[in-house]
Automatic annotation (TrEMBL):
Record-annotated Xylose isomerase-like TIM barrel domain positions: 20-305
Isomerase listed as a keyword: yes
SUPFAM superfamilies listed in its UniProt record: Xylose isomerase-like
Name of the protein this chain belongs to: Sugar phosphate isomerase/epimerase
Superkingdom in the source lineage: Bacteria
Gene3D superfamilies for this protein: Divalent-metal-dependent TIM barrel enzymes
Keyword Isomerase attributed: yes
Keywords assigned: Isomerase
Gene Ontology molecular-function annotations: isomerase activity
Amino acid sequence: MKLGVFLVLFGQQDLEAALDTAKAAGLEAVELGCGGFPGTAHVNAREVLNDEAAIARIKNAVDSRGMTISALSVHGNPLHPDASVAKSDHDDFVATVQLAEKLGVDTVITFSGCPGESENSKYPSWVTCPWPPDFLTVLEWQWNEIAIPYWKEQSAFCRKHGVRVAIESHPGFLVYNTETALRLRREAGDNIGVNFDPSHLFWQGMDPIECVKALSDSIFHVHAKDTKIDARNTALNGVLDTKHYGDILNRSFVFRTVGYGHDDEFWKNLVSTLRLVGYDGVISIEHEDGIMSVNEGFTKAANFLNGLILKESAGEMWWA
């Protein structure tokens, strides 16, 4: 396996400086944001798509440092009930897939999206329970009328460009757990898989190790981000927490740098289990720790994971 970083972490630097930062930390790969929620600080897929000189500069910037691009990320909501939002996110996705082909990158990361509750909606509507029965009616409409047709079309489009899609499971979108990830893959195409991020699973009460085993070869890419569960706040309010991420003391969970939510044993087990199911790609550091600075969180994650991957490569596996 290789260790990389979701380079939007260093969006305040230009591409070359951000690559130098990643290289100095001993990383071998970068994941580039190209639109949607990750923004376009380093790469704007729509702007550079037909600019061969700009594409060559991106390639050279990465290649000259002995690094690779693990994926292009364009997280968005192409199923949004606001047609203008949906179109913008869809156009970003299309441009990113086409750019991936030109860069020789085989993986594009995004969200599944979430529609509204009907054709008359203004905002996305995420169903979290089966009763009253109206919710199940909404859910089936969202899947059968919106999500499956859309992703079948995108699956075919991506095949033409030699690109696969790694859907990141996240609450608020139709694909948020193992079952929904596998459903989309089964019904829309096997070139649709998963960007595996354990931080989004922890706070839902899921076991990421078991999820890796169930997802198996549908895992196309991996994020390294941790979650700290606050036992008291969760005991009082459960995990469906809508308080601002900055309200750390009162939230049921917060995102943390790897090793600050779960111990060494978990991360050793995760790396080994990924290997056991055949994953030999990049583990990409994502930093959303509200307690640590960018540099502190990144440095600690890089040092921690570099040690684990070196040991794993040497055969010191932590068997699941």
